[in-house]
């Protein structure tokens, strides 16, 4: 039995080499890291510009960071981008003027920042919400996004592509005549792709967060990356067994990449509020991975119990479907 397992692992490893899987993973790692270090962290967008229209000159205590406007029209035009904030001090009580960004939390932050410039000497209670610098926060967020995309979309495609290659080579038909359990066939592929994904996750984290920061979150990241990798690999395996052609699978891959993961990114990164997103399973996987990168605890025991049940159910479903497919081939 050990020889059978070793032979399966050796065969699947050769398939991964033949399909250039490791080369593509290395290329993705280099591309993501170059973008993060050479482009993304240098996109230093300034804080919300604040324009002050004060024709009577009564706001003498306003911060110098507020840009003085000569007319109300000039202030309105400057604030039409949905990012800048205006303060109309032409009346008795100053009023905030801004075009909504569509996100209530962002609009509240913009208004609060404008008020702080209008009354810079007022006492406020400062609460420390984190120790990350702006650059480190950006690094953690973008690294989490790239890893999530790599494990969900690319991970879904990777294992399935090797199975389609085996179908074309007639390997499934050969397996149907051998005294090899479907469990070992699935486990062989799953172990190799899981190991590859974990190595990719570790390298991506250490390269872009730094060794000290990366090692501090790496254990939690590896756990969440392992869960996501297994779930997506099994899902891709199941779809590849059920579908006859790679065209059908490519369409399903496109739906996953665009219509399944995109809402997760929008809800998790932009603050868009959708009540239905809590029922999206990928959203919870993404938030758990993001919490791991920021040193926060995931959902708890219920989350891990649901993940374990999902992995076990998918594994049993894949084994049963593969057995049925091998019976057809045999």
UniProtKB/TrEMBL annotation:
The chain crosses the membrane at residues 21-43, 146-164, 184-209, 221-243, 250-277, 302-322. Keywords: Membrane, Transmembrane, Transmembrane helix. This is ABC transporter permease. It comes from Blautia parvula.
């Amino acid at each position: 039995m050990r020889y059978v397992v070793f032979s399966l692992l050796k065969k699947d490893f050769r398939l991964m080499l033949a399909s250039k899987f490791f080369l593509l993973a290395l290329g993705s790692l280099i591309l993501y890291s170059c973008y993060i270090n050479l482009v993304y962290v240098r996109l230093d967008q300034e804080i919300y510009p604040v324009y002050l229209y004060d024709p009577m000159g009564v706001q003498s205590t306003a911060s110098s960071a507020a840009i003085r406007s000569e007319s109300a029209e000039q202030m309105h035009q400057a604030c039409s981008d949905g990012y800048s904030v205006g303060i109309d001090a032409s009346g008795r009580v100053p009023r905030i003027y801004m075009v909504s960004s569509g996100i209530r939390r962002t609009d509240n932050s913009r208004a609060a920042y404008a008020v702080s410039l209008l009354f810079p000497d007022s006492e406020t209670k400062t609460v420390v919400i984190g120790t990350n610098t702006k650059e480190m926060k950006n690094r953690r967020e973008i690294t989490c996004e790239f890893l999530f995309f790599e494990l969900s979309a690319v991970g879904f495609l990777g294992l399935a592509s090797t199975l389609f290659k085996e179908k074309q080579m007639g390997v499934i038909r050969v397996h149907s005549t051998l005294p090899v359990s479907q469990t070992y066939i699935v486990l062989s592929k799953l172990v190799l792709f899981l190991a590859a994904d974990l190595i990719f996750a570790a390298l991506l984290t250490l390269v872009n967060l730094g060794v000290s920061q990366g090692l501090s979150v790496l254990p939690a990241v590896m756990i969440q990356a392992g869960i996501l990798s297994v779930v997506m690999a099994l899902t891709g395996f199941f779809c590849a067994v059920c579908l006859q052609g790679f065209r059908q699978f490519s369409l399903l891959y496109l739906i996953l990449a665009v219509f399944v993961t995109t809402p997760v990114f929008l809800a998790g990164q932009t603050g868009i509020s959708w009540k239905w997103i809590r029922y999206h399973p990928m959203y919870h996987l993404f938030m758990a991975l993001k919490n791991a990168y920021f040193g926060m605890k995931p959902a708890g025991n219920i989350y891990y119990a649901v993940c374990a049940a999902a992995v076990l159910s998918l594994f049993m479903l894949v084994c049963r479907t593969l057995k049925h497919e091998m019976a057809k081939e045999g």
